[in-house]
């Protein structure tokens, strides 16, 4: 079967303290009426990585139906591919490939924008010590001083941030509500694992953002707009607080009160949870029933502790069963993976 279409993009991973970048090749290898086969190849151009999550969105209603050599899930137009247990490590210059079958109606264009480990494509390798070259942002700048590089968070804790853009008024419901969601997740993990994580003494660090909401939504946003707002928040938090991605000192959670309707979202990868406006609103009690936000945080923390999405709705919080919180439970295999994972040492 002939190759019908292919697209290649260069995607940057997290800047943090390591050089990062990758090349992604998406190839439609075969196509028939209503269905197609595709292959994806990822080449790591930066420092070695120990786990990868690739995301893209379809623009013509395509649906992934079966995958191999990766765990691939889809929510609406957004597709997420996570490494298996045996292909998560990528050395510098190393490559990994996976494939899948899908369905289509009307058209089947190849996606042109990808994110790797939560960062939008930038077209090159990010150096280990980047020097900002863009001019100073226009508009209001908060009068409070920029926090120091390490803050006051105790090591081996879960560190939580609420980033408030310059045009968002302080509302105490948000830090209080986010803290309540984190304490609920803390209780759930103890129930499930017999041990849990420790929250920082300041459970929610309120951060005065450097920009207004529109800047976070639109800046550096040339590809998948689903990730723009949380990616901009993520980069600002890492820069201002001297946090890496991942960072063995803390597991970090960031929420921002900014969101583009039907576009902005969030997710997680080992060591980080990044969420946008609807999650912040939900935690504050102004957007839907609380069990959805409790279950959602348990789910994203599962990713931060190293778990992939489940491949089906299986009763565990790593599937759509998190909407049924608290009537959802980790499997024994998931419990073992959390405890043996990169952040298992944070649990006591």
UniProtKB/TrEMBL annotation:
Q: Where is the composition biased (Pro residues)?
A: 129-148
Enumerate the GO terms in the molecular function aspect: hydrolase activity, hydrolyzing O-glycosyl compounds; polysaccharide binding
What SMART domains does the record tag this protein with?
CBD_II
Disordered: annotated span:
125-155
Keywords on this record?
Answer: Carbohydrate metabolism, Glycosidase, Hydrolase, Polysaccharide degradation
InterPro entries noted in UniProt: CBD2, CBM2/CBM3_carb-bd_dom_sf, CBM2_carb-bd_dom_sf, CBM2_CS
Q: Where does the secretion signal sit in this chain?
A: none
* Any GO BP annotation: polysaccharide catabolic process
Q: In what residue span(s) does the CBM2 domain sit? A: 15-124
In its UniProt entry, what is this protein called? Cellulose binding domain-containing protein
Per the UniProt entry, what species is this protein from, by scientific name?
Actinoplanes xinjiangensis
């Amino acid at each position: 079967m002939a190759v019908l279409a292919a697209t290649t993009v260069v995607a940057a991973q997290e800047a943090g303290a390591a050089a990062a970048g990758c090349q992604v090749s998406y190839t439609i290898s075969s196509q028939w009426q209503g269905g197609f086969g595709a292959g994806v190849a990822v080449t790591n151009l930066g420092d070695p990585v120990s786990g990868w999550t690739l995301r893209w969105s379809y623009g013509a209603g395509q649906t992934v139906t079966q995958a191999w050599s990766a765990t691939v899930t889809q929510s609406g137009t957004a597709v997420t591919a996570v490494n298996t247990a045996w292909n998560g490590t990528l050395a510098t210059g190393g490559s990994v490939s996976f494939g899948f079958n899908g369905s289509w109606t009307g058209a089947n264009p190849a996606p042109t924008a990808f994110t790797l480990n939560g960062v939008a494509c930038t077209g090159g390798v990010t150096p280990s010590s980047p020097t900002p070259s863009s001019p100073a942002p226009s508009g209001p700048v908060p009068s409070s001083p920029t926090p120091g590089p390490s803050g006051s968070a105790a090591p081996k804790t879960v560190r939580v941030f609420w980033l408030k853009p310059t045009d968002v008024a302080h509302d105490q419901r948000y830090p209080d509500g986010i803290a309540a969601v984190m304490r609920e997740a803390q209780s759930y993990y103890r129930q499930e694992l017999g041990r849990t994580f420790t929250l920082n003494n300041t459970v929610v660090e309120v951060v005065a953002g450097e920009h207004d909401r529109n800047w976070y939504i639109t800046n550096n946003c040339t590809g998948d707009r689903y990730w723009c707002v949380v990616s901009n928040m993520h980069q600002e938090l890492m820069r201002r607080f001297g946090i890496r991605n991942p960072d063995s000192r803390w597991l970090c959670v960031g929420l921002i009160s900014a969101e583009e309707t039907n576009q902005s979202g969030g997710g997680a990868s080992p060591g980080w949870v990044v969420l946008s406006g609807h999650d912040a609103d939900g935690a504050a009690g102004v957007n839907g029933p609380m069990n959805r936000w409790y279950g959602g945080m348990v789910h994203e923390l599962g990713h931060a502790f190293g778990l992939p999405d489940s491949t089906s709705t299986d009763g565990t919080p790593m599937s759509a069963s998190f909407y049924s919180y608290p009537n959802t439970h980790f499997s024994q295999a998931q419990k073992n993976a959390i405890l043996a994972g990169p952040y298992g040492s944070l649990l006591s």
